[in-house]
Amino acid sequence: MTSHIAQLPQWNITTRKLLHTVLAAAALCLPACSAWAQTTATVTVNATSVSAGVPPEGYGLNTYVWDSNMLSSGVASEVQASGVNSLRYPGGSDSDLFTFISGTDQTMSSGYWYSSDTFSNFMSDLALPEGGKPIITVNYGSNAAYNGPAPTSEAAAWVQYANVTNSYGIVYWEIGNETYGNGYYSGWDWETDLHDTDQTAADRVGNSALSPTAYGTNAAAFVKAMKAVDPNIKCGISINTSSYSANWDQDVFQAISSALSGTGYAPDFVIDHWYPGGTTAQILAAQAGIPAEVAHIRSDLNSYYTLGNKSAIQILVTETGPASEGGVFPFLFTADDYLTWFENGASNVDFEDLHQGYMAAPGDTGNTSGSYLTPYGPWYGVSLSSTVARPGDNMVAATSSNSLLRVHAVNRTDGKVGVVLINQDPTNATSVSVSVSNATLSSYGTQYNFGNANFSSGSYTANSGISESSISGVGDSFTVTVPAYSATAVVIPNSCTTTTITPYLQVNGGTWQNASTATVASGSTVDLGPQPTSGGSWNWAGPYGYTSTSRQINGIPFKSGANTYTATYTNSSGCISTKTFTITVS
Q1: Straight-line distance from the first to the last Cα atom of the chain, in angstroms, rounded to the nearest whole number
Q2: Kind of pairing, strands 536-541 and 547-548?
Q3: What is the predicted pLDDT for the residue at 103?
Q4: Looking at the DSSP assignment, which residues form a beta bridge with residue 561?
Q5: Where does the record locate the signal sequence feature (predicted)?
């Protein structure tokens, strides 16, 4: 197992990705910058201007059922070491071919899969030992006989087996993969969808059975069938903001709103896939477009989705990648990608995928090369990001005067402030002047570095890991030099005084107890009301994606077993303190 911070061609690579992105030609690491080549940047951070929290299942990774090394020895621990905390299964377009018949009977209606990669084995050999929360994509496109679409009963049976029979408590369930690629739009025909069994383009383009309205209406039936089994799950629908799939989002939102109106059911999240295209420079620069992508999605929801949970709809980015095989460039992309999506409110981001670029190169799952445990650039991108910006921390406002110097900042639950600086300039180091407002920071901290110097010329893999060192002379303002095509992160403790959180809880409307733990019977109601009651702000994070900004939270949701809620209090000086509450249901 590799330590979290090191001391000093499968069939699914198809037209889909070619449409999402143009392969970059200059993907390998570039020569180190000359000592004299240097630019400057001014970075400002507002430690109390929160943009969004780092989600509890944010750092995700795709898996695929064709991968013969998905469940191999050492994979779970190596994935865990990078900071991944969610795992998508059964993987991309395979999902619309993967048939769940029962807990012991699963198959592919078409295409290849590795027969050991069953759902039960995925849970026992990867998800549970790794600790990542599964994100399941149920089959929308094909039945077991491959002569029609998947029935809703198949998805409901999967929920039953996972959450009722085995009590896995899987929350996120996607309805189909990229259904907009089913051939309804001319040239977009990579995704299996047997709501029309004729595979000719002439029959599929514009066919109403493949339309966004049909998908929205059919997805509503999946929502009802799955939530009838477990009302605590969250169901997601595929969206696409591209101009090539005109009106997809609008028609899907209108159709599912109409189909579920008055039923008490609703979808809970939308599924976006993010593959920027162009040259390496254009792909890196495309991350600056994520706020506009989120604004587009929210605008469509506001305009066309009419169910009552509009404001609570989450965004999950269940596929993303830089279209590059190795070297430092995918590291730069990945570190920036996750943090930018988190800043803009995404609940999950999943790199595409485990043995095509994360560990082992794309097109080489490690089956023949033996490299299935070898970290690639994106592994280090997630590792650096998750070390600085941890689940439960708050992403805060940060700006850079230099467009090639990307910046992310986080106000952490341990009272520290983290700043991640990503230099996208392939030839010039950048001297960065950092100023942090609304915080009183210590003069010492910890610095992390990774980038171009970690790769030998032409190498796909790093020859050394992320470096970690103690630094001094920082505080609220400091200067740091970030080498060309590299990232530097600085984490600085807060030198001000935090406020002690006094825990209080109430069971079944009884007396408030000065306690942070309780064991209750099923069906009980629990309220949490910590103190102080004024003078600062509160943020809560709990199971099943629960969040709140109220001090007192009433009737919290929970299931059998231990349920952990974390209260974060920021006092008027910007100092952060946390308290964990554990409610155990007997």
Answers
A1: 36
A2: antiparallel
A3: 86
A4: 585
A5: 1-37
pTM of the complete model: 0.81
Query: The tokens of 20 are what?
Result: 């999402």
Q: Kind of pairing, strands 505-507 and 526-528?
A: antiparallel
- Token reading at 399: 């700006």
| 407-to-209, 398, 510, 528 alpha-carbon distances in Å | 45, 6, 48, 36
d(CA 492, CA 131): 28
Residues listed for the chain: 586
52: phi then psi, degrees, rounded to nearest 5:
-175, 160
d(CA 202, CA 508): 62
> CA-CA distance, 554 to 215, in Å (whole number)?
37
The confidence score (pLDDT) of residue 498 equals: 82
Per-residue pLDDT at 503: 98
Rounded to whole angstroms, the Cα distance separating 18 from 63 reads 20
Task: Give me the pLDDT at residue 369, please.
Answer: 54
User: Distance between CA atoms of 452 and 484, rounded to whole angstroms?
Assistant: 7
> Which residues does the chain have with pLDDT short of 70?
1-36, 325, 361-370, 573
In this prediction, residue 548 carries a pLDDT of: 96
Question: How far is 178 from 241, CA to CA, in rounded Å?
Answer: 12
- Number of Cβ within a 10 Å radius of residue 5: 17
Question: Which residue ranges form the domains of the chain, and what is each CATH number?
Answer: 40-45+398-493 (2.60.40.1180), 53-391 (3.20.20.80), 505-585 (2.60.40.10)
User: Which residues, in sequence order, are bridge partners of residue 138?
Assistant: 175
- The DSSP-derived string for 86-153 is EEEES-GGGGGTEEEEETTEEEESSS---TT--HHHHIIIIIHHHTPEEEEEE--S--TTSSSPPPHH
Q: How far is CA 195 from each of CA 141, 147, 214, rounded to the nearest angstrom? A: 7, 9, 9
* Predicted local confidence at residue 138, as pLDDT: 98
Give 551-559's long-range contacts (Cβ < 8 A, gap of 24+): 552/527, 552/528, 553/527, 553/528, 553/529, 554/525, 554/527, 555/525, 555/526, 555/527, 556/526, 556/527, 556/528, 556/583, 557/232, 558/526, 558/583, 558/585, 559/169, 559/232, 559/585
Q: What is residue 37's predicted lDDT score, i.e. its pLDDT?
A: 72
Q: What pLDDT does 365 receive?
A: 58
482 beta partners: 430
Question: What span, in angstroms and rounded, lies between the C-alpha atoms of 299 and 305?
Answer: 10
Contact 154, 98 (CB under 8 A): no
Give the pLDDT score at 280. Answer: 95
List CB contacts of 345: < 8 A, sequence separation 6 or more: 51, 52, 294, 315
Task: At 180, list the tokens.
Answer: 């907009």
CA dihedral 36, 41, 47, 51 (to 10 degrees): -120
